[in-house]
Amino acid sequence: MKSTNTSSDFSYYYSFFQNTFDHMTHKPNETQLPQQEQDQDAKPGVKTKGLKEIISSLLLIEEQEKSEKLEWDQDFEQDKLIFEQNHRKKTKAMLDYQSELKHFDEASDQSNRIRKRKSRAVTNAAIASIVAAESDTTSVAPLPATGSGATTGASAGPQRRLWVKTRSTDWWDKCNSNEFPEHEFKKAFRMGKDTFELICNELTSAVAKENTMLRDAVPVRQRVAVCIWRLATGEPLRLVSRRFGLGISTCHKLVLEVCSAIKNVLMPKYLQWPDDESIRMIKDEFGSISGIQNVVGSMYTTHIPIIAPKISVAAYFNKRHTERNQKTSYSITVQGVVDPRGVFTDVCIGWPGSMPDDQVLEKSALYQRASNGLLKDVWIVGSSGYPLMDWVLVPYTQPHLTWTQHAFNEKIGEIQRIGKDAFARLKGRWSCLQKRTEVKLQDLPVVLGACCVLHNICEMRNEEIDPELMIELMDDEMVPEVGLRSMIAMKARDSIAHNLLHHNHAGTSFLS
Fold it and tell me: Which domain of life does the UniProt lineage start with (predicted)?
């Protein structure tokens, strides 16, 4: 743009000077000019020379501008050509790189496919050689015949796992035989053969597995036996593995699977709140035991020791057990309500061991049912660790009790003892509840629930527990901060105590 404007200006000035020059060089008639003008025109060559020099300078400037513009255009064209060449080179290099990368990926995929085919071929060859060697050196029991005939020959395929550590199953085979003594079986599994058979039949549909081409499934009876023996003895999984000839991880998996099946299949049948007819029978039995009417259950809370959890350690710290045993203790709670036979009708499992009994009660489903009016006009008897409420009957705890209050505490203690003895049999029968278990904290409620269900089955079937297995419970009772929650309940308790003494139902053992 600059060169163009300069050229235009030059043309303008050139025209101006050219016209001036022509005008000045035109000579009019000398006779018409004054004498003075003739004298001035006597020397015209001086002015003409100056104008020619200016015009020459302008022409030179024009030529210089033209040459500069031409040079600039040539440089621009050269730079543009170099840029286009570089762009083509970069584009070609990028396309070549993408092509090489694609070829590399294809070669890598092909190499992986070849390596996998070779690996499968080697594995198949090893399997074939092992199967051939086993067919020559060992006898393999065939699978049971199905359909109209049994499968034989090469079409039957391998009948056992390829890599199996040899473990002895002599102990379980002996226990599983019909000749095994009843008392020995009961000592090992805390129940008789008939009860064990009942449990196996009930759980068959939930725990049975089918055989595969590589191994036979563990039979239902053995699965149930692994779980019950583990719960009964509390032995480490490595000893369970030796007893039953199974892997440690397999035994752990079987225990959790069977406990889960017990919770899902047997708990709805063997651990439920009683119906109206059963409640009437329970009231009558408790009434005949203590003379206190409308009692439907005896409540107790115990602690189960656990390994210190990774989270919320303080919540599971059991201060009372730690102070008594001089050893740091962690636990979770199990709250249960039992009928006169010691059968659980309600359980609440898993709250941290630092919580007192009254707080555990408030967290339970039993408390929610009572709040909704489902326990109206009935009593559940608890220890002094529970508060006195419209549906919870507890002993007197204040000092300097009257004769009537002493007599009431004695009779209510008989009902309390039913619940405590039931928990003593629960922990004595299932020794895993007495020691810190290897089960993870999140799986522990299922295991404890299974123990309560198995306890109920044994109690219902009158499976007596070996006296040597009975233990003394050491669960400290803490009087709640607010022990009285209902004035109506306080008056009702006073009335019950007065009636017991008035009708000669109160004992006199507290006097001795």
Answer: Eukaryota
pLDDT at 130: 60
Measured CA to CA, the distance from residue 375 to residue 42 in angstroms comes to 147
72's tokens:
């600039």
What are the beta bridge partners of residue 379?
A: 295
Name the residue among 436, 198, 497 with its Cα closest to residue 303: 436
Whether 324 contacts 475, CB under 8 Å = no
**β-strands 295-306, 330-338: how paired?**
antiparallel
Q: With contact defined as beta carbons under 8 Å apart, do 443 and 461 qualify? A: no
Distance CA 409, CA 407 (A): 6
Characterize the bridge pairing of strands 344-352 and 330-338: antiparallel
Q: How many residues are there in the chain?
A: 512
3-17, 130-144, 422-436, 487-501: least confident range: 130-144
Cα–Cα dist 181/313, whole Å: 46
**Contact between 471 and 434 (Cβ < 8 Å):** yes
Which residues are CB-neighbours of 196 under 8 A, at least 6 positions away? 185, 189, 224, 225, 228
> What is the predicted pLDDT for the residue at 512?
45
Half-sphere exposure of 220 (CA within 13 A, CB side): 16
Question: What are the pLDDT digits (tens) for 309-346?
Answer: 988 899 999 998 888 888 899 999 999 999 999 999 99
- Predicted confidence at residue 144, as pLDDT, reads 39
Q: φ and ψ at 311, to 5 degrees? A: -125, 150
Instruction: State the pLDDT at residue 47.
Output: 63
For residue 465, the SS3 value is: coil
How far apart (Å, rounded) are the C-alpha atoms in residues 195 and 191?
A: 6
Q: Compute the distance between CA of residue 277 and CA of residue 294 in angstroms, rounded to an integer.
A: 13
pLDDT tens per residue across span 10-35? 455 555 555 555 555 444 444 444 45
3-state helix, strand, coil in the chain (%, to 5): 60, 10, 30
Measure the N-to-C terminal CA separation of the chain; round to a whole number of Å.
129
Measure the CA dihedral 262/263/268/272, to 10°. Answer: 110
The alpha carbon of residue 218 and the mean position of all alpha carbons in its chain are separated, in whole angstroms, by 27
Q: In what order do the strands lie in the sheet with 379-381?
A: 344-352, 330-338, 295-306, 379-381, 392-393
- pLDDT per residue as tens digits for the range 203-226: 999 999 988 887 889 999 999 999
pLDDT surpassing 70 at residue 142: no
| pTM (2 d.p.) | 0.68
Nearest-CA neighbor of 199 among 455, 506, 409? 455
Residues 413-442, mean pLDDT to the nearest whole number: 93
- The neighbour count for residue 134, using CB atoms within 10 Å, is 15
pLDDT tens-place string over residues 240-250: 999 999 999 99
- Closest of 397, 398, 400, 399 to residue 413, by C-alpha: 397
Q: What is the DSSP letter of 425?
A: H
Spatial distance between the Cα atoms of 298 and 337, rounded to a whole number of angstroms: 5
- Token reading at 473: 């419970």
Q: What angle is formed at CA 23 by the lines to CA 17 and CA 28, rounded to 5 degrees?
A: 165
